Amino acid sequence: MSEETLFTRIVEDEIPSDTVYEDETTYAFLDVNPLAPGHTLVIPKEPYERLSELPPAEAADVFSVLGEITAAVEAAVDADGTTIALNNGEAAGQEVPHVHWHIIPQFEDDTARPIHALFDGAELSDEERSEIAARIRDNR
Ligand code: AMP
């Protein structure tokens, strides 16, 4: 876990933000470069870098409010839906090394492509898929 990140400075109010939610362990604020109106970031206050580092109790805290914050975001900007995304690691586009969920409002008439469109797709045989599943089970 890093000592300090851009987002811990936001939590500490050293950097201003448009805060939309705060409790003992969780914080949410508007993204300064929004992909859509209402684009919100939800974070644990502690600066765990990756999802796998987030202790289950703190993950549970974040998830206990993620749904209601999402509903409030949708209502605030009259969105038809939302994409919830977490860029986990640099290779996935994570720029701030402090785990965070993006809540990105979507509208029937917007031009945003579904998140599936980001990927090239992987052609795998049944055997290859089964082997990967076995490796995942072994690595847990
Ligand atoms: P990621 O690429 O998943 O790490 O996302 C980092 C997000 O943080 C980006 O969408 C940025 O626009 C956002 N961001 C960076 N600096 C700030 C800031 N000072 N206040 C709010 N959002 C920020």
Strand content: 15-25%
Strand order of the largest sheet: 1-2-3-5-4
The helix/strand class is: alpha+beta
Q: Work out the helicity level.
A: 25-40%
How would you characterize this protein structure?
This protein has helices at residues 6-11, 56-77, 126-139, and strands spanning 19-22, 26-30, 40-44, 81-85, 101-106. The protein has 140 residues and is α+β, with helices and mostly antiparallel strands. The longest helix is centred in the middle third of the chain and has 22 residues, at 56-77. The chain is globular, with a radius of gyration of 17 Å. Bound molecules: adenosine monophosphate (AMP). Adenosine monophosphate is lined by residues 6, 15, 17, 31-33, 87, 93-96. Adenosine monophosphate (AMP) binds at residues 6, 15, 17, 31-33, 87, 93-96.
Topology:
Blueprint: H1 6-11, E1 19-22, E2 26-30, E3 40-44, H2 56-77, E4 81-85, E5 101-106, H3 126-139
Antiparallel strand pairs: 1-2, 2-3, 3-5, 4-5
Short recap of the structure:
The protein is α+β, with helices and mostly antiparallel strands and 140 residues long.
Keywords, separated by commas or semicolons:
binds adenosine monophosphate, 3 helices, globular, alpha+beta, 30% helix, 5 strands, 140 residues, five-stranded antiparallel beta sheet, single chain
